[in-house]
Each structure stands twice: as structure tokens, then as C-alpha cells.
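JOB MANIFEST
job_type = single_chain_structure
chain_count = 1
residues = 88
[input]
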Amino acid sequence: MKFKELKNILDTLNTDQLEGSIFVSTEVGAIEIDSIYIPEEDMINPSGDGMEPISAYASEPEILKTESVVLKKGNPILFGEVLFRHER
């Protein structure tokens, strides 16, 4: 889903619905969204442990040549708290 599609859906909601919490259901559990982050620069993940700003690797050009951008500058990402995990 793109943010434009989400916006179109949100535009159809009434005030009570818009005041509600945002939840995401996944195959592994449920998440309650509690924040949004809009990066001021491209983000990469060379360590595999999480995204970092591309400027953190300015002194390591070999990494920048091979690493793909995982989140582009200005592209929002939602963060949240895991409410529960499905048992396996």
C-alpha cells in the first residue's frame, strides 16, 4: 500500500474513527503504532541490525558503493509497540 492510498481511506473516516489508535496485524502478532519518523536523508542497513543514515558511512565509501537504500529521504516510516505475538 502507498501513503496516497492510505490517505484516501483516512479521508473517508469520521472524527471518532480518526481519534482511534492505529493497529497493524501481522503474521507474527499485532502492533500499536505510536510514532512516525520522516528521515532527513537516505537510510541504509549495512550491519543488518537496523537502519542508519547514509552520512554515518561517509568515511566508508566502499560500503556506500554496495549498500542499497532501504528508506529514502522523506519517506515516512511508522513505529509501534508489539501488543502480542502469535504462538507458534
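[summary]
Residues 36 and 78 are 4 Å apart (CA to CA).
Strands lie at 22-25, 29-37, 43-44, 52-53, 69-71, 77-85.
exit_status = 0
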